[in-house]
Design a protein that fits this description.
The protein has about 325 residues and is an alpha/beta fold. The protein is built from eleven helices and eleven strands. Bound molecules: 6-O-phosphono-beta-D-fructofuranose.
């Protein structure tokens, strides 16, 4: 390996996701393995702006692989959005003698990393960590699998009470502008309908489908609504509209919210985080920069930050068809 990198920084940024700690651990332990120093910056870009960091060695990440959240904390830094803030961050990194940064986060994090590397010629590597799974260049982001399991477990519980009371439940899940969580958790939990931002199925179709369900003998139903869905203004107005048009239904709304971001990471997320971050360190030591590591067809690959940001990771539309067939 061509090794000009002597000291690597790591941070977590944007919405936290289960498996970020496993990712930090893998960066720190890989650095220790390859005899490279490692420092952890607190609160994402904000810690870089303020020069708020700690030295990390292999023992400083003991027993964190199983913990949700991020020991380095996370933030969405306003200062880093300005050229002055980014200049401050460049000065802090130079003062801390950091040669390259590993940025664990979502598209906002990669946008920040890209502009920072362009302005200051500073090497960065992106690691996709977000429950939304909305990043091009990887089939899975760290935290998505755990979030799916959290959602399915919650909907299973809602199903129990929905069935006892013959009710219709609208369950709102996270995902920002992407429907990955809704689509996959909806199929996993056997939802009657799944509403996602990528596909506007229309209110009439929803009413017709719920009416059909009722007539076919279904006593309770679950509609999974992605928070970015545009069919209703929000999940409460959607539920109100449906109840007005189908008065036989007794409807309830549950917004799952931030429980989807917490909890101990699944084995899949721990292994994914470990594989991605060993690769991230190895790429830097090989002289690569400004790329994102991703999980594609069970292999760890990399693509430029530019394409990770420019292109879109689309949902698998066949899953909608599967959901339709299985909710008959
Ligand atoms: O990007 C992760 C995510 O959890 C989205 O699913 C959600 O829209 C957003 O973050 C919520 O952000 P905050 O925690 O700042 O409210």
């Amino acid at each position: 390996m061509v090794n000009k990198i002597k000291r690597i920084g790591v941070m977590t940024s944007g919405g936290d996701s289960p498996g970020m700690n496993a990712a930090i651990r893998a960066v720190v332990r890989s650095c220790a393995y390859y005899n490279v120093e490692c420092v952890g910056f607190y609160r994402g870009f904000q810690g870089m702006v303020e020069g708020d960091y700690m030295e990390m060695d292999a023992r400083s990440v003991r027993n964190i692989i199983s913990r949700g959240g991020t020991i380095l904390k996370s933030a969405r830094s306003k200062d880093f959005l300005t050229p002055q803030g980014r200049k401050k961050a460049a000065n802090s990194l130079s003062k801390a003698k950091v040669d390259a940064m590993i940025l664990i986060g979502g598209d906002g994090t990669f946008r920040g990393g890209k502009i920072f590397s362009e302005e200051h010629g500073f090497p960065v590597i992106g690691v996709p960590g977000t429950i939304d799974n909305d990043i091009f260049g990887t089939h899975y982001t760290i935290g998505y699998d755990t979030a799916l399991n959290t959602v399915v477990e919650a909907i299973d519980k809602i199903r129990d009470t929905a069935s006892s009371h013959n009710r219709l439940f609208f369950v709102e899940v996270m995902g920002r502008d992407a429907g990955f969580i809704a689509l996959n958790s909806g199929i996993g939990a056997g939802a009657e309908e799944i509403l996602i931002p990528e596909e506007d199925l229309g209110l009439d179709r929803l009413l017709a489908s719920l009416e059909r369900s009722r007539k076919s003998g279904k006593m309770s139903s679950i509609v999974v609504v992605s928070e970015g869905d545009k069919i209703g203004k929000n999940v409460f107005e959607l539920a109100e509209y449906v109840t007005k048009n189908l008065p036989d239904y007794d409807s309830k709304v549950t917004v799952l919210g931030h429980i989807q971001r917490g909890g101990s990471p699944s084995c899949f997320d721990r292994v994914l985080a470990s594989r991605l971050c060993v690769k991230a360190v190895e790429l830097l030591l090989d002289g690569q920069k400004n790329v994102m590591v991703g999980f594609v067809n069970n292999q760890i690959e990399s693509c430029s930050l530019v394409s990770a940001l420019k292109e879109k990771h689309d949902i698998n539309r066949d899953l909608l068809r599967i959901s339709d067939i299985l909710s008959t």
